[in-house]
Every structure is written in C-alpha cells, then in structure tokens.
Description:
The chain has about 325 residues and is mainly α. It folds into two domains: about 1-130; about 130-270 and about 295-328, no CATH class. The chain is about 70% helix and about 0% strand. The chain starts with a helix and ends with a helix. About 40% of the residues are buried. Residues about 300-328 have low confidence and may be disordered. Belongs to the NIPA (TC 2.A.7) family.
Amino acid sequence: MGLSRDNFHGLTLAVSSSIFIGASFIMKKKGLIKAGTKGIRAGSGGYTYLYEPLWWVGMIAMIVGEIANFAAYAFAPAILVTPLGALSIIVSAVLAHFVLEEKLHIFGVLGCALCVVGSISIVLHAPQEKPIHSVKQVWQHATQPGFIVYTFLVLIVVAVLIFRYVPRYGHTHMVVYVGICSLMGSLTVMSVKAVGIALKLTFSETNQFKYFETWVFVLVVTVCCVFQINYLNKALDTFNTAIIAPVYYVMFTIFTILASVILFKDWESQSGAQIVNELCGFITILSGTFLLHKTKDMGNDASKDKDPPLVESPNHVDTPSNTDSHRQ
C-alpha cells in the first residue's frame, strides 16, 4: 500500500523524532561525562551538568524530538507512529559506538537490522489516516461503546494495580509499575492525537479550541502524563533500566495499537494480509529491540554476571558498565 500525503508527513516526523531523541541520549551522556570531570557526578547527587553546554544541547534535541513525535500523531495513525519509536534505539546504539566507544557487537548490528526491516514492513502496510474535519469527530469516536469499555477497563486495572499490587509487589515485580505506565500511556497517545488534530485544524481551517471537547483531551493528556512519569520514575529507580526499556516499549506499543484500533478503527478498511504484515513488522521490531538490549554489554565484565532477572530486588546493585570503567 502506498503512502498517503498525511502518512508521509507522519512518517517523516516520526523518523525525525527518533533521530533527535536517540542523539539526545548520547549528547546528554557525553555532557554528563564531561561534567563529572569538573565536579560531583549526577549519580552522586551533583548538578555540575547544568553548567555543561553539551548537556543542554542534548535536552533541546530531546524536546525537539518529542515535539516532532507529538506532531506525527496529528498526521498518521498510531499503528504507524508508535512502533517507529524503536528507531531511536538504533540511533543511540550507533552513535554510542562511534562517540562513546561503547562497542556495537555483531548481534547489536543484527538487532538494528531487524528494527529497520520491521519498520519498513509497518510503513508499507500501515492503514491510511482517515480524514477528520473537527475534533468533535474524534469525540464521537471516543464516546462509542467500544472505546468507553476499553477506557473503563484500563481505569479499573490501573486502580487495582495502584491500590492492591503496588504496596505488595511494586518493589519486586517490574510489570506492576510498567503495566500502569503502559495502560495510561495508551490513553495519553489517543488524547495527544486528538490535541494534535485540533492544532492542525486550528492552523489550517477552524479554531478547534472553542470546543470543550478539545480541553477535555488536553486534561486527559495532562493527568495521564503525570501518572506515567510518576510510575515510570518508580520503575527506573527500582529495577534495571536494561530490562525496563524493552518491556515498557512492548507493553506500551501493544496497548497503544489496541486503543487506536478500537478508537479509530484503523484495521476496518484493511485486508487480513495487510494486518498480518503489520503484526509481523511489529514482532520483527520487538525481536531487534530485545536483541539490542540483551547483547549491549556483550564482552563487558558486567556481562559475566548472571543475566538480570525480570523480577529483582529493589536493593539490586548493577555492576559498573564498561563506560564507567573507561572513565575511571
């Protein structure tokens, strides 16, 4: 299936977003390394990096990337935009190899190749963005029984996780925190898409911010983002980042695609073969992402230790990375 004009714009913005975000991690890390030689490192509670220009360049690059990602949802379906977030992992891995001298092994290269192949498959078979002429149309979709049931189930599951499972298993089972982030994230993306459409229509046709529905979507984005940031920080503070990143990507992408299919009925006009090709593309990206994370420390001293478990103690202490040993 060929790319429509809107899908092409969404694809361009999504890829640009991944490049900026992937590069931002490297620039910020390089800035942190430089700042660490001048004062107390960030990991030890220091804030010297705030005076490091390179760190700020990285922050600006990340902001630009997030804005591009936000805009991408206004043009293309979430099924196309969300999985392409994995491309930022490739950018980070390749730049880390050349800039930070963190060696990219053959399995890492294979992981990158799988991500690219999967992305191409999704791009070629992604559904066309349906024309929307008012944010009220999005509101009509959102108030259909199917999406109301989905939203209701998400809120129930999140409430159960927060009040029942977080106190008991939050510090031992990673999927509790990640599950909350992913479920709320699916609602965030749907609302972000609605706000993005409102902005696009406001600049090109009619002011959409005169409708209360637009402000409801803005409120949902704000509330859901607060939940996501809060519980993602808890997850990062408790568990190994190398495990959280791929699991969060998988769960977030699955729930986002599910929400998009229910809300916008993305697969309604597609054949079974096209849907299968999209799913195969996503699974291929998933395989590449896991391969990249699983082999990123191959050959390092840290890799000689046993693999980090999916469920680990909050007192788990990671061994120093190869980068840290170079700094010392």
